[in-house]
Design brief:
This protein is α+β, with helices and mostly antiparallel strands. It is built from 12 helices and 21 strands. The protein folds into 2 domains: 234 residues, FAD/NAD(P)-binding domain (3-Layer(bba) Sandwich), CATH 3.50.50.60; 147 residues, no CATH class. Helix 1 runs parallel beside helix 5, helix 1 packs parallel to helix 12 and helix 3 packs across helix 12. Bound molecules: flavin-adenine dinucleotide. The site of flavin-adenine dinucleotide has 41 residues, from helix 1, helix 2, helix 6 and helix 12.
Length: 400
């Protein structure tokens, strides 16, 4: 029995290890000159590889039932797997990293295990076509390989410079699969206004709320980065897949920023108290106590306020609105080049929930981001790569 894994990324490497037994030959075809390019970029090079808080609500898919089943089967196997291959973890607020804080630790541990199991990796092999006759005929840019089972682990089209550029979708389609439209996810948002260069470089803790067609959708809390095109940062990333979908459906997408999340009371009441406390202060002096100076300058510019205007002489309602409800309309997300993951992909309906084997082509399996599953920031996307890699690998191994 020969099992071919196409793609030596996160899910492909785990699938290869899980598929190996004494009775089979497992090999990986990877288009790059080495495996795991994207894995090395994860978590800013630190690899946030898992999250303690594994709940379906951190994932998106059109078939949550199948996703739930994959969870049930594989969730508890992930940490023991990494322990078994020598990874000592560090946990911060439920986010798992290798103790060394280096993504290379995870990649090297996987490659060491692959080497010990005698799994062959053929690099610089770009798979261009797969045909199923009695078994699989796999054509690459160099030669032809044969296999009894194939695990397609080619990733999505996010960050294509890492090798996952969406070509796997075409391979799956050529074998009869369909595709749920693929859009960028976990990415920054581009706004419609002209003033962004005024707030460029600010990083601040805040609350951001997403509104679609003036309806509240979702709120996130954390640090955002204000950029020369709009907004970025983890809490923006977590809203971005919804925004991409909304924009595609021609909905009006707005982000409302609360720059004073620490203020527990009604902002107008709080401003009144400040007015009493800081009797001699002008507006700028009062704002300087809690707001980034670039934001203060921006509010002055947008409201065309004189520099020395007294606190008492301004419309407090307007200032309150800038502080708690700073609204920007979004015209686009950053492209696939900058997105950490994609939403959409091969529908989970087209795979067996217990094995990840294709319902269309016998002995073909799928893992990782090529499937219609994406997660929030926090280790969830690698989490799905490991879980699906293990499930497809273990299933492929059966009757080997
Ligand atoms: C900058 C960045 C930071 C991230 N940080 C995190 C994080 O901290 N935590 C987290 O959980 N997730 C993170 N992610 C997401 C995570 O990396 C992916 O979800 C995960 O790598 C997907 O695994 P995969 O196996 O499906 O695909 P990939 O890891 O993309 O692997 C696919 C492999 O297939 C190869 N390939 C593609 N087509 C072919 C072909 N035709 N023939 C041969 N080989 C082919 C590619 O070269 C690639 O090596 C991050 C992503 C990015 C871009």
């Amino acid at each position: 029995m020969r099992i071919c894994i196409i793609g030596g990324g996160a899910s492909g490497l785990v699938a290869a290890i899980s598929a190996k037994s004494n009775n089979n030959e497992v090999f990986i075809l990877e288009r790059n000159n080495k495996c795991g390019k994207k894995l090395l970029l994860t978590g800013n090079g630190r690899c946030n590889f898992w999250n303690e808080n594994q709940d379906l609500s951190f994932y998106h898919s059109h078939n949550l039932e199948i996703l739930e089943n994959i969870f049930k089967l594989e969730k508890d196997k992930v940490l023991p797997f990494f322990k078994r291959i020598g990874i000592i973890s560090k946990v911060k607020d439920g986010y798992y990293y290798p103790f060394s804080n280096q993504a290379t630790a995870i990649l090297n541990a996987l490659l060491t295990e692959i080497n010990k199991l005698n799994i062959k990796i053929y690099c610089d092999e770009l798979v261009t076509n797969i045909k199923k006759e009695k078994n699989f005929i796999i054509t690459t840019n160099h030669k032809t390989y044969f296999a009894d089972k194939v695990i397609l682990a080619t990733g999505s089209k996010a960050y294509p410079k890492t090798g996952s550029d969406g070509n796997g979708y075409n391979i799956a389609k050529s074998l009869g699969h369909t595709l749920i439209p693929v859009l960028p996810a976990l990415t920054s948002l581009i706004g419609c206004d002209k003033f962004y260069k005024n707030w460029e470089g600010i990083r601040t803790e805040c609350e951001v709320s997403l509104y679609e067609n003036n309806q509240f959708i979702k709120k996130e809390k954390g640090e955002i980065q204000l950029t020369n095109y709009g907004v970025s940062g983890i809490c923006i990333f977590n809203l971005s897949s919804q925004v991409a979908l909304g924009l595609q459906e021609k909905k009006k997408e707005e982000i409302k920023i609360n720059f004073v999340p620490w203020c527990r009371e009604n902002i107008r009441d709080w401003l009144d108290k400040q007015e009493k406390l800081l009797k001699d202060y002008n507006l700028q002096e009062m704002l300087e106590g809690f707001l980034n100076y670039k934001l203060i300058n921006l509010i002055f510019k947008l409201e065309k306020l004189p520099k020395d205007i007294k606190w008492q002489n301004i419309k407090k309602e307007k200032i309150a609105n800038y502080l708690t409800n700073f609204t920007i309309e979004i015209k686009d997300t950053k492209s696939f080049d900058n997105a950490q993951v994609c939403q959409g992909g091969i529908p989970l309906d087209e795979v067996d929930a217990n094995t990840l084997e294709s319902k269309i082509v016998k002995d073909l399996y799928f893992t990782g981001e090529i499937l219609d599953v994406d997660g929030c920031c926090g280790g969830y996307n690698l989490g799905f790569a490991w879980m699906s890699g293990m499930l497809a690998g273990e299933s492929g191994k059966k009757n080997a």
